[in-house]
């Protein structure tokens, strides 16, 4: 529960959420027992954590900014709680001062959202960012997966275009921070210096992946299958690429369900590592050899 973001909600919106929840059909589902071990099962200790990390204040509009900017700030910081995934954590697991510089949460990388042109959203057009937030895909930038796909499917795609535009305005204003992977473009001859592992992955990609993604990464019949330009195929750490290859991902769109199956039961760890190494080299111009251990469950 990201209550350190929800503390920014105004009373009217908090009560509206309560009214909706109270309108749902009651279910007799007892809460599970606390299974945390000492000292994390000591709730009183949260008093100190909250003192350090929970501002406990309501959103205050910035009079120096436009109404659209303030609306976008409220949606992004409070209701959207975007910083909870996209901002690095401190040693106490509070949010660091590097707001929106990107972070890894539950095995998925939430990418840099600042205005940095290489690491963040500075190289995106307003149209690309609007499309990504509304549909989970952006031409030339790839598609949402994992928790971000869930955010689009269950929340963002229902928002009005006016509110999406407000979020874009606010995100555009975030100070640039040069941190995290850089989305690369394909090299002119992407396969000229493949490692032995990536060369093996090239054959596996042709057999298992090219049918949907196409050899050039444009995606067959659907931009949700596009790989070219995506952060995930340029990230040397390959966090999201590994997650998708192993477990798959899905996203409900206005045109049907975009679905990528997981391959952990169809291919060995060595084969998945070879595919990942090839994808990074071919589409992301990133010479990183992924180890089979990355695909251990």
Automatic annotation (TrEMBL):
Keyword Metal-binding applies: yes
Keyword field: Heme, Iron, Metal-binding
Signal peptide: none
Cytochrome c domain mapped to chain residues: 67-175, 196-283
GO MF term (any one): electron transfer activity
Superkingdom of the organism of origin: Bacteria
SUPFAM superfamilies to which the protein is assigned, alphabetical: Cytochrome c (SSF46626)
Pfam family, one: Cytochrome_CBB3
PANTHER family hit by this protein: ALCOHOL DEHYDROGENASE CYTOCHROME C SUBUNIT (PTHR35008:SF8), BLL4482 PROTEIN-RELATED (PTHR35008)
Protein name: Putative diheme cytochrome c-553
Lineage, broadest ranks: Bacteria, Pseudomonadati, Pseudomonadota, Alphaproteobacteria, Acetobacterales
């Amino acid at each position: 529960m990201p209550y350190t973001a929800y503390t920014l909600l105004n009373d009217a919106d908090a009560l509206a959420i309560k009214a909706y929840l109270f309108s749902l059909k009651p279910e007799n589902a007892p809460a599970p027992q606390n299974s945390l071990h000492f000292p994390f099962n000591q709730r009183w200790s949260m008093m100190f954590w909250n003192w350090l990390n929970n501002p406990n204040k309501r959103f205050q509009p910035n009079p120096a900014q436009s109404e659209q900017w303030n609306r976008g700030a409220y949606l992004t910081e409070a209701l959207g709680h975007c910083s909870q995934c996209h901002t690095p954590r401190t040693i106490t697991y509070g949010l660091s001062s590097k707001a929106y510089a990107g972070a890894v949460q539950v095995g998925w990388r939430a990418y840099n959202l600042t205005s940095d042109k290489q690491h963040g959203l500075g190289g995106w057009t307003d149209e690309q960012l609007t499309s990504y937030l509304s549909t989970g895909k952006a031409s030339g930038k790839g598609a949402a997966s994992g928790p971000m796909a869930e955010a689009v499917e269950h929340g963002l795609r229902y928002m009005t275009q006016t509110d999406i535009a407000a979020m874009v305005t606010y995100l555009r204003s975030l100070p640039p921070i040069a941190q995290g992977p850089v989305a690369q473009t394909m090299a002119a001859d992407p396969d000229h210096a493949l490692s032995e592992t990536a060369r093996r992955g090239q054959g596996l990609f042709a057999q298992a992946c090219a049918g949907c993604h196409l050899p050039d990464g444009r995606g067959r019949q659907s931009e949700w299958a596009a790989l070219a330009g995506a952060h995930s195929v340029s990230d040397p750490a390959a966090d999201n690429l590994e997650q998708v290859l192993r477990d798959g991902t899905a996203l409900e769109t206005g045109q049907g369900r975009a679905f990528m199956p997981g391959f952990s039961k169809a291919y060995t760890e060595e084969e998945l590592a070879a595919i990942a190494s090839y994808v990074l080299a071919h589409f992301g111009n990133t010479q990183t050899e992924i180890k089979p251990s990355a695909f251990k469950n």
